[in-house]
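Aim 2, interim progress: modelling of the adenosine-5'-triphosphate-bound target.
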Amino acid sequence: MQKVYTKIESIVGNVITVRAQGVRYNDLAMVGKSLANVIKLDGELVSLQVFAGAQGISTTDEVRFLGYPMKVSYSENLLGRVFNGSGKPMDNGPELDENLIEIGGPSVNPAKRIIPRNMIRTGIPMIDVFNTLVESQKLPIFSVSGEPYNQLLARIAMQAEVDLIVLGGMGLKYDDYLYFKDTLKESGAMDRTIMFIHTASDPTVECTMIPDLALAVAERFALDGKKVLVLLTDMTNFCDALKEMAITMEQVPSNRGYPGDLYSSLASRYEKAVDFEGAGSVTILGVTTMPGDDVTHPVPDNTGYITEGQYYLKGGRIEPFGSLSRLKQQVNKDTREDHRALMDGMIKLYAAYKESVEKKSMGFMMSEWDNKLLDYGKLFEARLMDLSVNIPLEDALDEGWEILASCFEPNETGLKSDLIVKFWPRTEE
Amino acid sequence: MKNNNAHVIGVNGNMVKVAFEGTLSKNEVGYIHVGTSRLKGEVIRVNGSEASMQVFEMTGSIAVGDEVEFSSELLSVELGPGLLTQIYDGLQNPLPDLAAQCGFFLQRGVYLDPIPSKDWEFTPVVKVGDRLRPADAVGTVMEGIFTHRIMVPFSFEDEDWTVTHIVEKGVYNVRSEVARLKSAKGVERSLTMVFSWPVKKAIKCYRERLRPDETLVTKIRIIDTFLPIAKGGTYCVPGPFGAGKTVLQHMTSRNADVDIVIIAACGERAGEVVEVLKEFPELTDPKTGKSLMERTIIICNTSSMPVAAREASVYTAVTMAEYYRQMGLNVLLLADSTSRWAQAMREMSGRLEEIPGEEAFPASLESVIASFYERAGKVRLRDGKIASVTIGGTVSPAGGNFEEPVTQATLKVVGAFHGLSRERSDARKYPAIDPLSSWSKYKGIADEKKVSYARSILFRGSEINQMMKVVGEEGTSVEDYITYQKSELLDSVYLQQNSFDPVDSAVEVTRQLYCFDLLYSILKAKLELADKKEVRAFFNQVRQSFLDLNNSAFKSEAFMALEASIRELAASKQGRA
Ligand SMILES: Nc1ncnc2c1ncn2[C@@H]1O[C@H](COP(=O)(O)OP(=O)(O)OP(=O)(O)O)[C@@H](O)[C@H]1O
Ligand SMILES: [Mg+2]
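Predicted structure of the complex, ligand included:
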């Protein structure tokens, strides 16, 4: 039964209100030519957010309720295709409507989860050594506009051994969209990629649909045994779209205009990252740009509280401070026995180096120890932090010992004696 | 079920408006009928013939006109033997059972019996004619390593009840009758091993509340020695994201010297709970030799689970803690994170269109937080036993800034504050508790004079460090530089502790005291070192040996050798005091 209503009571922002009966919360409707979904029921008053935006909608436009919530087609036919935030093709390919699945489905029962156990190798020492990426992890790149975050995202995606890549673009610059498309094509990965793209010029409401579309599809492929990597860029645009909706709905903002449920909204998406026992997995790598490079801004702040760490990309490098992989300890105990200790030790020394740099910049005399640290910091940055370095984990660990040995005496490093005996490079005499 | 002739008149997120007839109480549980499922909710506001319900499930597909049925009961949990080792969601739904029934995903509207239908060997402790009051035991069962008292339900009228029937010692199902009691007014009631209790009401069946004056040992040096917590006390751990709140709570949940640990994972990552529930069954509790799981209950309402159930989850957890306290046990409740709970209240308050307080939190935030922590306490039960509930909550302040409503409201009511600092966690100085700004009102394990001396070195060392940033190392006297190095030593070999090292991760009291004394002798020593280079070399050596000592088994050969070398080293530079 599809009821049609032709009297729209109000149009505010992208939200319209009609009087209707028997409508269910969250269900879809067609408003003119656009999809819309029910976001509030109040007696007979039904509020809908219009995906394509409410511009040009008139009070006598048709509202036709479809009687089901938002769905997306799921099949192998998705591979290599590009869709927008309403799930419509953007690549001149055919529309897909077979095997529809619901988006924004229930969360995985925590009792069914397993402890993540597989390292994803990227060849980037700042990731592999210091903040190991793990299958089923949810992890954003924190950055500011102008930094090569999309390049980093693409590089990790190309290098990671996954079965499938799902790219969710939100407020993506058209150039960036083309960059992803070209990079994927060149590396031959396009036929195992699915894209849901909202570009900067597309309607706001569609932006809010992208993560759910991408994750619903990813989840199903994972259940069917695939290792899926979901790339979400830029989640800050997603949050800004939510903010716009909340303001339209006159919700009381909690912090800098963002709605009070921002944390829950983000969590319900990021928590889709999972490793299914006996099937595949969903790993989420996102981008969160920080307005004003301020990590305490509500978007990066809420994100940091949800994700399993973050890579802090600044000045074209992944910064050791501010970057964190919370799952690293699940895998770095089984890589090489010196991995953990070296990782901690080198970062502690790098922190000390930063202090010496500060002292130096204030014009203080550098002690012998300061000078050692300064040498160390330079080597560390050049030989491990530089993003052009592309070496396997084991080589990077060896490199770490070399750097330490060329700067310090063993007992200055704070490393355990048994490791020093085993790994400290011997000086040829 | 009573008939309120109720139906849905509005839906906004997880808030559903209902029109009803007859009587309805606040916090009463109701079920919305959607298709074939029934979705649980709780009345949080009544206005004339309209009620607002927070729904514990996703609200998709609810339509105006859907029938609502009310239960006459307040939101409650079931209490009885079999709670231990369980993993529940915020409404006490057993998650493994749910998984067995529904598979990978949570399915809304499925509510299973929280207490497993199991047989227990019941030993009566009363006879016909005995007079009892609520919370008095009628018998006991052995629940793993604990003697679980089967009690007169706390909800019975607080008056004398006479035993009219009691079963003999034997094996009974948890839900079969074990006793009957009669009140003075002649009301007769039947008892099984299970009863329920409304979660938002504190259980107060004890004789008196006592001061929390006994240290709760966590085996974490910086806590036990410098910032102790107490059995029956409260403490909070605020810190920016990634600073180590959860790791700290997990370490505490493993090592804390209490009988029972209840972990409330409130609005945080599901993956973190999985670590606990996969690892605990494998770990042995050194105190009992049994698996750690046997003393643990996990309440887990993770961030992507419905937000209203998140609000309920901390109450579910604390109610179970109070229940086990009634058995004379020491219970530790760890809630991670209380900010998510506060945010759940904020979401609800926003949907109710209440006038918001600071940062849109409800105006009642402070009093709600205070009354939650008030449920902790050390008590003397009516049988004279001493028991306690300790509450430790993490706080996740927006932007890592402690000047925000949840942190501030919490600081007003807790007995200890372990503030984590971004600076320390960035520098991998774990646990990243800031030793300078954190405080505790409780008594620790070590001699107070020595502790306060060590603390004074820390403060002085930090001052000198600040000064050095202005005048440089060259402008600092050797003496000051030694003090600074002493404070650094104290920090790196005592305050910092490696959670992932098998030896260092948990340090017994005797070992803590032993090592603290060793360290203290160095802090106290008047060292004769010629210049800063010599100072640095000396402290590097001491630190290295001390770190190695921290990783060696207590009083093992290696340990003793390292200790001797530290003492020797110190003696060689010791001036005449
Ligand atoms: N005591 C510790 N020893 C070693 N590493 C630690 C320690 N504490 C924390 N870490 C590291 O820091 C990471 C983050 O810690 P944790 O998850 O406890 O942070 P959190 O404060 O709970 O953050 P959030 O508020 O986002 O939940 C851990 O995954 C681990 O890598
Ligand atoms: Mg945490």
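Residues 208-440 of chain B form a domain with the Rossmann fold fold (CATH 3.40.50.300). Residues A 305, 324, 326, 329; B 239, 241-247, 268, 396, 430-431, 499-500 surround adenosine-5'-triphosphate (ligand 1) (CB under 6 Å).
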